Amino acid sequence: MPDSSVTAARLQAVNAWTRFTTDRNLQARTPDWRTSLAPDGRPVLSAEVAGPGAAHALRLFADLHYLPLPESGDLRPFWDVDVPGRTVLVWRSGGVWVELWHPDTVTDLPAVRPARGRSLLSRASARLPYTRRPIVKETTR
């Protein structure tokens, strides 16, 4: 596979990810791209999605981003969970496999705040007026 195909696939992936995260103000990034060979001999581009909300950003990217794949033989993004400990979004572009992944950890979950007890109003307010005794109107005959 020529290096130009690998470079084109990487540029497409980097531009798509950067544009998607910037438009949605997401902080997850793909700082380190690695190239290797798949068992079928095709090149594989792989990057870990790192930073706050990495799993959330990758899910949104998979669900909402339209990735144009004009060549025949290109494959749309799909989830791969075969490798223990990581979730991978995979697609094929120009004969190159592209992977964006994040480790399966619980640190990506938002912090849960303990529920605060409800306090009852002890006095009337302008928003919720009430009195302690109901007003009884007497009718005279």
Descriptive account of the structure:
The chain is 23% helix and 23% strand. It starts with a helix and ends in a 38-residue tail after the last strand. A hairpin with a 5-residue loop joins strand 3 (75-80) and strand 4 (86-93). The protein has helices at 3-23, 54-64; strands spanning 33-37, 43-48, 75-80, 86-93, 96-103. It has 141 residues and is α+β, with helices and mostly antiparallel strands. It is built from two helices and five strands, in the order αββαβββ.
Q: Could you spell the SSE succession in H and E letters?
A: HEEHEEE
Distance between the termini: 102 Å
Sketch the major β-sheet: 5 strands, mixed
Strand order of the largest sheet: 1-2-5-4-3
Rg (CA only): 27 Å
Q: Give the DSSP E fraction (strand runs of 2 or more residues).
A: 15-25%
- What structural class results from the helix and strand content? alpha+beta
Please work out how many helical segments DSSP would assign: 2
Mean pLDDT equals 82
Task: Give the overall silhouette.
Answer: elongated
Summarize the structure.
The protein is of the alpha+beta class and 141 residues long. It is built from 2 helices and 5 strands; from the N terminus they run αββαβββ.
Task: List the main descriptive attributes of the protein structure presented here.
2 helices, elongated, 5-stranded mixed β-sheet, alpha+beta, 141 residues
What is the element layout, followed by pairings?
Blueprint: H1 3-23, E1 33-37, E2 43-48, H2 54-64, E3 75-80, E4 86-93, E5 96-103
Parallel strand pairs: 2-5
Antiparallel strand pairs: 1-2, 3-4, 4-5
